[in-house]
Specification:
The complex is a heterodimer.
Chain A (H helix, E strand, L loop, with lengths): L1 H20 L3 H15 L7 H6 L2 H17 L7 H4 L3 H8 L5 E9 L5 E10 L4 E5 L6 H9 L6 E6 L2 E2 L10 E4 L11 H11 L4 H14 L15 H13 L5 E5 L7 H17 L3 E6 L2 H7 L2 E6 L2 E6 L1 H6 L4 H6 L6 E10 L2 E5 L4 E3 L2 H4 L9 E8 L4 E2 L8 E10 L3 E8 L2 E8 L15 E6 L5 E4 L24
Parallel strand pairs in A: 3-8, 3-9, 6-7, 7-8
Antiparallel strand pairs in A: 1-2, 1-4, 4-5, 9-10, 11-12, 11-14, 12-13, 14-20, 15-19, 16-17, 16-19, 17-18
Helix pairs in contact in A: 1-4, 8-9, 8-10
Chain B lengths: L1 H37 L2 E3 L5 E4 L3 H8 L1 H31 L7 H9 L6 H11 L6 H6 L9 H29 L3 H9 L4 H29 L3 H6 L11 H10 L4 H32 L1
Antiparallel strand pairs in B: 1-2
The chains are: A alpha+beta, B mainly alpha.
């Protein structure tokens, strides 16, 4: 809004100057008249004064007012304000701090669509994590919620307020920035109390809140320092402290840990989780790190190229990814994908990858309807941790071992299966590891857990799921073929 | 041979500063020393020192009403110019800190005074401030003789100078604003801070380092304003706009009292030097307190 007001100021001065330059006498008279009127304000209001305000003044004023309204505040005229859905409004009233994003999208003036049709209901006391590769629109979405980016289309509700056009300061949100955004000229105490002061909270109250937040974050000995005298981890704590002193409807965190080193990051992750548990509040957290997403979230939103791929609890996302992207994004190391065709022989559907052929697990049989002799191209997805060296011989998969990484608690085997990359993760003490004693062993046989095999349509990338799988992917079609 | 090497080692480095030393010597140090020397003499019309009077020129100056008037006028002038010029520059810079359509035009407009010669600006202002045909009187529907009325003359010249100086201040402040992290404004707006609060608590403190430099440069610049006065008022009416620099000019080239003019120059130099030193001290103290 501020940017626009400044632009308007310029335009107004520009228009005035332009009119003056064009020697349009009436306008000059108009402006002069206003000036003189102001000069004469101490004198008695006499006919002469009124006479000076003529038509041109009124036109000038109306013109400028229209200009102002037209460009700045279309808020009151906005259609969303009028069509308020009473049903949802009532539902919202019962759940004050819930945030609803409905059909939110963001298109930049150059036509680039950063976020496309984003739908999400966030309840109170949820920890929502937006996760995705860089450039997927997760930060943009967060900034739209915060009010730092304008929403191109859709509705954003906080509680029962439609906030599309509301100033960021009035949305009652708190935000932690990736680069901390501490006020460099203020001490830690002043930084943490800034928002409270702006909201005219009483001094004693501010002091109490800042002290308790500082204690919670173990920065109570740093309150008199300037940000430039703090380490990265301490700055991060101050940034988080400045947010949690407030009683906001939601706390927005934009990649808050990505500037910290690995050890501090783990520590802060645990601390954040504890803070969340202590506070009865909604957190919205943006990260590209799937570990942060899995450990912190009550619900994860996986995004890619501006579109929501899947919304669900970390467990759901891990166990039932709706498509190949989500399956590949969540989990470390990445899920193994093997190109394999489904073929139907005598009513029994099997998965044929060329170098091996395994029967389709029973729970997936019902999802695949195919004629005798028909072939469907699919991709088999097996997580490295679901492969072992012993198992059902029907599911045997040949594996060419190339390299092993021993981390003590577990062992990674990297290699190929019929020319396609594959990784196996074995926990220490898992049976069948005797074959690995010989260092030159190359050919192995691995067995997937049939219950944890995923199958993806190679064209759409969608998962071919078993019945009853939890899926909240918001309007995506069913994965069955 | 070894002795030659040693001499070369000792003398060699000084050779590098000879060119600049010559330039500085001819155009800076010689006139400076000569001025101090002249200020101790009575001179003839050719500006040659004829009679040594010691501090006599200074004594005369400090007892002369005209010079005291000059000091007072200059003080008022400097205050108006520094405050006005810096405010104009700051407002322009703050307005142009955000990007919006037409920003190039506006920032050029705000920086333009920088590139206008003071005398040509003064010429234009002389026409604009003309009591009968000037646009200022037309716009205000007033009938004020801006340059001939002792009440307005000094203010008119000071405002013109403030505007002229605002261009370079705009540049300084723009650079200062560019150094402030955008993100803290985003955070402040989420924290619910009003624009005024953001300006006073984030922008001004952020401009603090450049502010000091700007104040120093502005004060020096203001003390040395000459062209505007020469063209607009010639020190008049009466002595209402007789700034020190103009009074030096008048003493030297109208009255041919080079000794007295030199003494005035030295006084002006001392004033500026003391002020600058004081400001450096204040800045150091302020820096420590923070």
């Amino acid at each position: 809004m501020q940017r626009k007001q400044i632009a308007i100021f310029h335009v107004m001065t520009g228009v005035t100057a332009f009119l003056c330059l064009k020697q349009q006498k009436s306008y000059i008279k108009g402006i002069c008249g206003i000036f003189r009127f102001w000069q004469d304000r101490s004198k008695i209001w006499h006919i002469n004064t009124i006479d000076r305000i003529n038509k041109s003044h009124i036109f000038a004023v109306i013109f400028l007012r229209h200009l102002y309204r037209f460009t700045i505040t279309d808020l009151t005229a906005h259609p969303y304000n009028k069509e308020s859905n009473k049903k949802t409004q009532k539902a919202r009233e019962s759940n004050m701090s819930a945030i609803t994003l409905s059909h939110i999208s963001k298109t930049y003036p150059n036509g680039f669509a950063a976020v496309k049709d984003f739908n999400l209901e966030i309840g109170s006391h949820e920890f929502i994590v937006f996760v995705g590769p860089s450039g997927c629109g997760k930060s943009t979405t967060l900034r739209m919620i915060a009010g730092l980016e304008e929403i191109s289309d859709g509705e954003l509700w906080i509680g029962n307020r439609l906030v599309n056009h509301m100033d960021p300061g009035k949305r009652n949100l708190a935000m932690v920035f990736q680069n901390y955004a501490l006020y460099p000229n203020m001490t830690v105490y002043q930084n943490m109390s800034f928002a409270l002061k702006a909201h005219k909270v009483e001094k004693d109250e501010i002091d109490r809140k800042v002290q308790s937040a500082a204690k919670m974050l173990k920065i109570d000995n740093l309150l008199d320092r300037k940000p430039s005298e703090l380490s990265g981890g301490q700055r991060q704590r101050v940034a988080i402290g400045s947010a949690i002193v407030r009683e906001a409807d939601a706390y927005l965190l934009d990649e808050p840990l990505s500037n910290l080193d690995a050890k501090l990051r783990t520590q802060m992750r645990v601390d954040l989780k504890q803070i969340y548990d202590k506070m009865d509040a909604t957190f919205i957290y943006v990260t590209h790190d799937q570990v942060e997403a899995m450990t912190l979230a009550t619900r994860i939103v996986v995004m890619k190229e501006g579109t929501v791929q899947q919304v669900g609890t970390p467990q759901e996302i891990y166990e039932h990814p709706v498509n190949r992207f989500v399956a590949g994004f969540v989990g470390l190391p990445q899920m193994n994908f093997l190109k394999a065709d489904l073929s139907n022989a005598a009513g029994k559907i099997s998965v044929d990858a060329g170098s091996f052929s395994i029967p389709l697990p029973d729970r997936l049989q019902k999802q695949v309807h195919m004629q005798n002799g028909q072939e469907i191209r699919t991709e088999l997805g097996i997580r490295p941790e679901n492969l072992s060296l012993q198992g059902d011989p029907r599911y045997a998969i040949p594996f060419e071992l190339e390299m092993r990484e021993n981390l003590g608690s577990h062992l990674f085997l990297h290699g190929h299966c019929g020319g396609q990359k594959m990784t196996v993760r074995l926990d220490a003490g898992e049976p069948g590891q005797e074959v690995l004693r010989r260092q030159d062993v190359r050919s192995l046989t691995v067995y997937p857990d049939p219950e944890k095999i995923h199958l993806f349509d190679i064209e759409t990338g969608l998962s071919i799921k078993e019945n009853g799988a939890q899926n909240e992917s918001g309007g995506r079609e069913d994965g069955s073929i | 041979m070894a002795a030659f090497e040693q001499v070369k080692k000792k003398v060699g480095p000084y050779c590098y500063i000879v060119p600049s030393a010559i330039i500085f010597g001819i155009f800076l140090f010689y006139p400076f020393v000569k001025t101090i020397y002249l200020s101790l003499f009575k001179t003839n019309k050719m500006g040659q020192a004829k009679l040594f009077v010691g501090l006599g020129n200074y004594k005369d100056l400090l007892t002369s009403d005209s010079f005291r008037n000059s000091l007072a006028v200059t003080a008022i002038f400097v205050v108006i110019v520094v405050i006005g010029g810096m405010l104009l520059g700051l407002i322009g810079a703050v307005l142009c800190n955000k990007s919006f359509p037409g920003i190039r035009f506006f920032s050029t407009a705000y920086a333009l005074p920088m590139s206008i010669a003071s005398s040509s600006a003064a010429l234009i202002f002389r026409i604009m401030l003309d009591p009968t045909i000037g646009i200022v009187n037309k716009l205000l529907q007033s009938n004020i003789n801006w340059l001939r009325d002792p009440k307005y003359a000094l203010v008119s010249v000071a405002v013109l100078t403030a505007w002229l100086n605002s261009g370079i201040n705009f540049l300084y402040f723009s650079a200062g604003l560019a150094n402030i992290d955008e993100e803290i404004y985003e955070r402040a707006s989420i924290d619910g801070a009003s624009s005024a609060r953001q300006f006073f608590q984030l922008t001004l403190p952020g401009l603090r380092p450049i502010m000091f430099y700007t104040v120093v440069v502005n004060i020096i610049q203001a003390f040395q304003s000459f062209g505007q006065v020469k063209i607009l008022t010639q020190g008049g009416p009466g002595e209402a706009t007789n700034l020190i620099v103009y009074s030096i000019y008048r003493d030297a080239f109208f009255n041919f009292r080079f000794g007295s003019a030199a003494a005035e120059s030295v006084v002006l130099f001392l004033i500026i030097m003391v002020l600058t030193l004081l400001m450096f001290k204040a800045e150091k103290k302020g820096g420590k307190a923070r």
